Amino acid sequence: MTFDSSFFILYIMRRNVVLLLYIVLFIACADKEEPIMSFKLSDVTLKYDWNGGIRDISVEADNIWYISSSVPSWLSIDFKSDTNLSIIAGCNDTKKTRSCDIIFSTAWKADTLYVVQTAKERLAFVGEKLLFMNAEENSFSVEIDKNIGFEVVYLNNADMWLSQTPDFQVGNSISINDLGTTKLSFRVGENPSLNQRFGDIIICNDYYGLADTLCICQAGKSEKYKDGEIEQLQQAIYSDLNLVIMCDGFASKDLNYNGKYYQAACAAADYFFSIEPYKSYRNYFNVYAVFAESREEGVGEKDSWKKTNNKFGTAFGTGTEIVCNDDLVFEYARKVKGLPAGKPLTVIVVLNSAKYAGTTYLYSDGNSIALCPMSDKPSPNDFEGLIHHEAGGHGFGFLCDEYVYYQKAMPESRKQDLKKWQKLGYQMNLDFTDDTSAVLWKDFIGMEKYSKVGAYEGGYEYQYGVWRSEENSCMNNNIPYFNVQSRWSIVSRIMKLSGKEFGISDFIRNDNFVYPEEVDTRSAKEFIPLGNPVWIMAD
Known about the structure:
Elements: H1 5-30, E1 39-41, E2 45-48, E3 53-61, E4 66-67, E5 75-79, E6 84-89, E7 98-105, E8 110-117, E9 123-125, E10 130-133, E11 138-146, E12 150-155, E13 162-165, E14 173-174, E15 181-188, E16 197-205, E17 210-218, E18 230-234, E19 241-248, H2 260-272, E20 285-290, E21 300-301, E22 315-316, E23 322-323, H3 326-333, E24 346-351, E25 359-363, E26 368-373, H4 383-396, E27 404-409, H5 412-422, E28 456-459, E29 461-468, H6 474-477, H7 484-498, H8 504-510, E30 534-536
Helix pairs in contact: 2-4
């Protein structure tokens, strides 16, 4: 057999060509990778404080995307476009931080957005804020509801006879950030003095601007307060506003330490601060008790043979009217040392009577006297309700009554009188228009937080020609709730007298309130209007 070299060469060449084609095909296939699909979130974490708010995110994707996880009820999503959306968180009224994962998905990939919202910061003593101790060495424990760290501070030289147990020292920072309550224990030293003594224990967090005060009252030996003697019931932290409380118709036997007079003054102070907004702004006020001994117990009657020789001449007049010797009231109030000159005084005079009545003297210079018996009527017409209406509403807030007595239009003379006081910044809870774009409380109308705010006709005794901001309020029938315009007026006055910059947005952010069940009822069945405030233009 003859070997054909040309044939062999041709065979080799053909085989190499086939191998080369296989190699090219393999390389081409190897270069053909899976397509890369872009998918990215602009943020992977969203954080909200307890007020909630809106956060915007964008989605970068080359394919259709969707949210594949459930969204909790406290969040809502607003899709702005195919790539942009807003995530809205409501207010966190719970006591806990809350969070969730929102999963964004495509057919190729998934990504997770972590959303977290903190709880509202809280720091407060649990239970009574005024504790009475006897003169002997003693101890007590208190609980604190908090979710932030806090510091313990003593005022009024309380560190001389109060101490924490077992190991904490004055001013120690206690960094406890878990939820729930913390119990603190204190030792009270023996009081060797005949005089009662007071000390304030304050828990505070300067970063969040939160503080609460526990007042400790330790009795001395059995002695009585003297006429004109002063006791400070509360020391202000954030300002130097002054509330002065005195009582009338209390005889010598009532002036024992921790006796009837003192208990009545303390109750009046507690009731004054038991309603918003005073509850939230309590630490702006100094509170003093001025002791006044009456020759006779009780309250007389103005136009009657029945007279009572009490200290301040308080007497019941027509209906629920009360009169007093206002000059002598202010003379006793000025016995408090260190009161700032030129700053107005709010004075509460507690009457030794269970009658339902009340009248407030209001002066154009900002001074006021609220006359409040210790009414034994059911709430809201009890002693506490009278303090809310007369002292909190009229006395400090300089608010108008909102109840309706006459089913007719307000006379022009009454309107002009009200407008004259409004020029001084008082009586700002009523207006003469129902135009929601012009009424005094227009900034609150339409806000979800203030859904009950509108223009309701009737106030200052008349049904027509005058409007109030909500259906019902303390200035109507003593319920423990001031409407939003009343709260704004009160807080504005607190901040103005404190010399602090404060706008309506600050108020809204810090406004704490709860609608009472009675808020939708125009008037309580047994409500009796209190005495008309006495408005006096000062010289």
